[in-house]
């Protein structure tokens, strides 16, 4: 039985690496985040409730660790918006590499809450309910953050400045 659970944890590693790279953009910091997540998951394995999805549980551990680091001031989300690009497989054309770079920079410009939900739902294909559990927020919050993240990402990639709230108009008498 232990070997089965070990295999489940190992199977999560590629998804954890993608999510970590999307959160911090720096490959070395992302690998550290994955390693810390795996260590925490293994040491707290008895806490996993076997009725839930192992991958969502591991994303939750990673999310909490990332948030703890940000709160502790060890890592700042603003620092993650460097020019380091994630490793990508060989692409056919140079324009493909430019597009990947543009997408990475646009993702890093999103607020952390938007980036997290976008990565979990759009990249890792978690359900809204699983993403809500990982992030510790209601499903409606996941849906609204996802909508705002997609809109800001679209605006950034199209070169438009992100839309800001319209100023309130008051009637002057």
Describe it for me?
With 173 residues, this protein is an all-alpha fold. The chain has a single domain (2-82, 93-157), classed as PhyR, sigma-like (SL) domain (Butyryl-CoA Dehydrogenase, subunit A, domain 3, Up-down Bundle), CATH 1.20.140. The chain is 66% helix and 0% strand. The chain contains 7 helices and no strands. The protein has helices at residues 2-24, 27-43, 54-72, 94-109, 112-123, 128-135, 139-157. Helix 1 (2-24) packs antiparallel against helix 2, helix 3 packs parallel to helix 6 (128-135) and helix 5 crosses helix 7 (139-157). It starts with a helix and ends in a 16-residue tail after the last helix.
Question: In a nutshell, what does this entry contain?
Answer:
This protein has 173 residues and is mainly α.
The rough form would be described as globular
Rg, nearest Å: 18 Å
The top-level CATH class is: Mainly Alpha
Helix content: 55-70%
Q: Uncertain regions: pLDDT < 50 for 5+ in a row?
A: 74-86
> Please, what is the oligomeric state?
single chain
Give the total of domains.
1
SSE order in H/E notation? HHHHHHH
Number of strands: 0
Number of helices: 7
| CATH architecture identity | Up-down Bundle
CATH superfamily heading: PhyR, sigma-like (SL) domain
Strand fraction: under 5%
End-to-end separation: 76 Å
């Amino acid at each position: 039985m232990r070997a089965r659970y070990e295999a489940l944890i190992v199977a999560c590693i590629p998804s954890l690496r993608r999510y970590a790279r999307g959160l911090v953009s720096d490959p070395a910091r992302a690998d550290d985040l994955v390693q810390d997540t795996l260590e925490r998951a293994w040491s707290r394995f008895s806490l996993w409730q076997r009725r839930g999805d192992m991958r969502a549980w591991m994303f939750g551990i990673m999310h909490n660790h990332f948030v703890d680091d940000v709160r502790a001031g060890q890592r700042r989300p603003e620092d993650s918006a460097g020019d380091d690009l994630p490793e990508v497989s060989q692409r056919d054309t140079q324009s493909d590499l430019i597009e990947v770079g543009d997408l990475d920079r646009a993702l890093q410009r999103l607020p952390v809450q938007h980036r997290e939900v976008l990565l979990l739902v759009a990249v890792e294909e978690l359900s809204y309910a699983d993403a809500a559990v990982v992030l510790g927020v209601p499903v409606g919050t996941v849906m609204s953050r996802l909508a705002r993240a997609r809109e800001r990402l679209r605006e950034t990639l199209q070169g438009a400045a992100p839309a800001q709230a319209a100023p309130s108009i008051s009637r002057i008498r």
